[in-house]
Amino acid sequence: xxxxxxxxxxxxxxxxxxxxxxxxxxxxxxxxxxxxxxxxxxxxxxxxxxxxxxxxxxxxxxxxxxxxxxxxxxxxxxxxxxxxxxxxxxxxxxxxxxxxxxxxxxxxxxxxxxxxxxxxxxxxxxxxxxxxxxxxxxxxxxxxxxxxxxxxxxxxxxxxxxxxxxxxxxxxxxxxxxxxxxxxxxxxxxxxxxxxxxxxxxxxxxxxxxxxxxxxxxxxxxxxxxxxxxxxxxxxxxxxxxxxxxxxxxxxxxxxxxxxxxxxxxxxxxxxxxxxxxxxxxxxxxxxxxxxxxxxxxxxxxxxxxxxxxxxxxxxxxxxxxxxxxxxxxxxxxxxxxxxxxxxxxxxxxxxxxxxxxxxxxxxxxxxxxxxxxxxxxxxxxxxxxxxxxxxxxxxxxxxxxxxxxxxxxxxxxxxxxxxxxxxxxxxxxxxxxxxxxxxxxxx
Length: 444
What we know:
Blueprint: E1 3-5, E2 18-21, H1 23-26, E3 30-31, E4 34-39, E5 42-45, H2 57-61, H3 69-75, H4 79-86, E6 90-94, H5 107-122, H6 130-154, H7 158-183, H8 191-205, H9 210-222, H10 244-251, H11 262-289, H12 293-339, H13 355-361, E7 365-366, H14 370-376, H15 382-387, H16 396-410, E8 416-417, H17 419-443
Parallel strand pairs: 2-6, 7-8
Antiparallel strand pairs: 1-2, 3-4, 4-5, 5-6
């Protein structure tokens, strides 16, 4: 039960009663119809607000019953502005005797991480370089123009078409990394400007939905590699991941597919089908079902531009085949880059760790090089990106030594590997999980 108290203003007039709550009581409010969370020791009832949350109701629900201070700081570029939305939701504070962190988290580690974040802010590492993003956008547009010039001057032969497909694949993939920057509000100081450009890039340049991406991707960042919270580890019974899920499936004698061979059929299902099939169906159905009409209009503008450009050369069927082939190639690039940082890492149920520990346990880095930076859209700095999602990617290398030092201080494993090994580890991890499933299926 919460405890009541009063504070008097400087004029001596009594202010509204402030209620105090214990963590035991706050943690009870983590239900779908009853959500409380704590930010800087203040307790908020976000039950009704969750459905209006710009990042989606699920991401805020995943933090219910917890201290969400670090998540709140990580996702908002102007926390002071956002406070005006929180003010009506305030219902009290943590009781004076309660620790600032829930579930016996290491308070000193949490404080040191927040000090690190403040240091990064003082170093202006959250300030974007306009030239970097301008040149990045320019090289995407240059590839789009080059593709059109090639087919205009060299015709539609097989060799030309293959080169054209590779150029368009590269353009689409790099546009995907760029929309990721704007989606995370890491380019402009104002959220509204980031949102506008994000809709343009993901909608007009890629034919996808900004709202679909936001609602899905922010869940991944809030609770990476956590079953039932991170949509990226919801494999629809096609794969089993980590060490616990395979054993659970095996004990229950669940065999939707022969999981001991998942490291083999991975090549036939995941890379080739994720974008051209699963994502396309999910994006279109989400825009219609959730009535994201603005996103749908942006997506239609992409398809209109594409078909107006290439139908004169390839016809309707040929243009559609070319687009499908480009999506097929892009899907391979996207899957290998995005999964190398997560599938080999810890994947499990919620453990209620602090922000630093939870993010680092679920992510790893890839060695830096100019090619790796470009090829992965700087997702080779996955640890830094997950800790500071609004930080412009060109500054990750600057904060990296500080993060490594903090991890070393508290014995948090900071993993970094070569690009090739990261790819191999995806397959190795899937094989390990498949073997765990088979053993449990046969013997437990």
